[in-house]
Design goal:
Blueprint: E1 3-9, H1 30-35, H2 43-48, E2 71-75, H3 84-91, H4 109-119, E3 123-128, H5 131-145, E4 148-152, E5 157-163, H6 169-182, E6 191-200, E7 203-206, E8 211-214, H7 222-228, E9 232-236, H8 239-242, E10 250-252, H9 257-268, E11 274-280, H10 282-288, H11 293-312, E12 318-323, E13 343-348, E14 356-360, H12 364-373
Parallel strand pairs: 1-11, 1-12, 2-14, 3-4, 5-6, 9-10, 9-11
Antiparallel strand pairs: 2-13, 4-5, 6-7, 6-8, 12-13
Length: 392
């Protein structure tokens, strides 16, 4: 019974792409930044081959590149963009020729007017803002007036924050669905995000009932092809939201990396044929955007400590893949945005020989590799990274 466990370490970039300056990113390197922290300790990733990947040792990072136990590669993003949605879509085989729309000056009235009319509520903020800071700045006014806090970021997102005692969460979700219907075509943002919070003035905190409403992927992905062939496609974390549920047969949401790892281990004890696609979001959400180098390093070190539990549970026909969807260099202070970077690829499994595949031209090679293992020809551009003898 063939299974693949594909784990995305959200935002774990390993060095600037050649075109990074076009995205406003100069000399960025997420791995380079966190490796300088005293809290960075990843011996298991090192043994797999993290430091053997193209460009990693050249950046002066400590760690051995002399031998490794996994297939390793440096992944270049072919799509135009550096956000979560486009990165995951490309991993699944869907390249985006144009970046999803962003709104550095806030959303235009042609978006807000129908939204306010449909919800019957006014809007506060309407600017790029930190999610933790925006509720402190506008939370009291929201409670007083009932107006919704609408904000964005450098990502292609329309975020709605509301106090759970003022706007019940299910109603907030309905407002997000209204926004999702409006935000199509040229205003088709990647995600509409519900951001509920609780607390009192000066002490507002976001709750765990965030929910993402993603735009539907505009083409065929490996998820569609796998589920269409009768295989299981299990989504852990925010994967279901990123793909708007398309091509997914089962899903579970998680409250952070620890739960995401725990859920992955649970699925490893189950019998299924297909893919378990996991997103571990804390690196990006809690540490990258907040420019917390030590926090990011601790989170990577925590994953590294748990990695042997995952590897030990691999069955004879299982494959483990580790990668990322973009960078978010926590030491880059010019912005708090994602950073345009290469991402790592590590692939291991019982009997899979270690190799260094250099630099790949697209994240889509991951999707092609997944399909190749199940004997499925990809309906998208991508080259498998499997060696002979590991195909169906």
């Amino acid at each position: 019974m063939k299974r693949i466990f594909l784990i995305v370490l959200d935002s774990f970039g390993i060095g600037a792409m050649p075109d990074s300056e076009q995205y406003g990113d100069f000399q960025v390197n997420t791995l380079g930044s966190v490796s300088g922290s005293a809290h960075f300790h990843v011996p298991n990733l090192e043994r797999m081959g993290l430091f053997a990947i193209d460009g990693v040792k050249e950046a002066g990072l400590r760690g051995s590149a002399s031998s490794h136990t996994a297939v390793v590669a440096r992944m270049a993003e072919a799509s135009r963009g550096k956000d979560t949605t486009i990165g995951h879509w490309e991993i699944a085989g869907l390249r985006s020729e144009r970046p999803l729309p962003t709104y550095p000056e806030g959303f235009p009235e042609e978006v807000l007017a129908p939204f306010k009319e449909a919800t019957g509520r006014e809007v506060l903020c309407n600017r790029p803002y930190s999610g933790t800071e925006v509720i402190q700045r506008y939370g009291a006014e929201h409670l007083r007036t009932g107006a919704l806090i609408v904000y964005t970021s450098a990502d292609s997102v329309f975020q709605i924050a509301a106090h759970e005692e003022k706007v019940p969460v299910e109603q907030l979700y309905e407002y997000c669905l209204i926004a999702r219907r409006i935000l199509q075509g040229k205003h088709g943002v990647g995600r509409v995000i519900a951001r509920p919070f609780l607390g009192t003035e000066g002490n507002f905190t976001r709750t765990s009932r965030r929910h993402d409403f993603s735009i539907l992927p505009p083409g065929i992905t490996m998820l569609d092809q796998l589920s269409g062939s009768g295989r299981d496609v299990i989504a852990v974390g925010k994967i279901k939201d990123i793909f708007a549920g398309k091509g997914i047969t089962e899903a579970v949401y998680t409250g952070g990396n620890e739960e995401g790892i725990g859920r992955t281990l649970e699925y490893m004890e189950r019998d299924f044929e297909g893919l378990c696609f996991v997103n571990l979001v804390d690196y990006d959400m809690l540490y990258g955007h907040r420019r917390d180098v030590d926090g990011y390093a601790r989170a990577l070190s925590y994953f590294d400590r748990r990695l042997p539990e995952i590897v030990e549970r691999l069955k004879p026909e299982d494959i483990l893949m580790l990668t990322a969807d973009h960078g978010c260099d926590p030491a880059y202070t010019a912005t708090t945005d994602h950073t345009r970077e290469y991402t790592p690829f590590l692939m291991a499994g019982p009997g899979i020989p270690p190799r260094n595949l250099g630099t790949r031209s697209s994240f889509a090679d991951i999707g092609a590799t997944v399909l190749d293992y199940f004997g499925i020809r990809p309906e998208f551009a991508g080259e498998s990274m499997l060696s002979d003898g590991y195909r169906n």
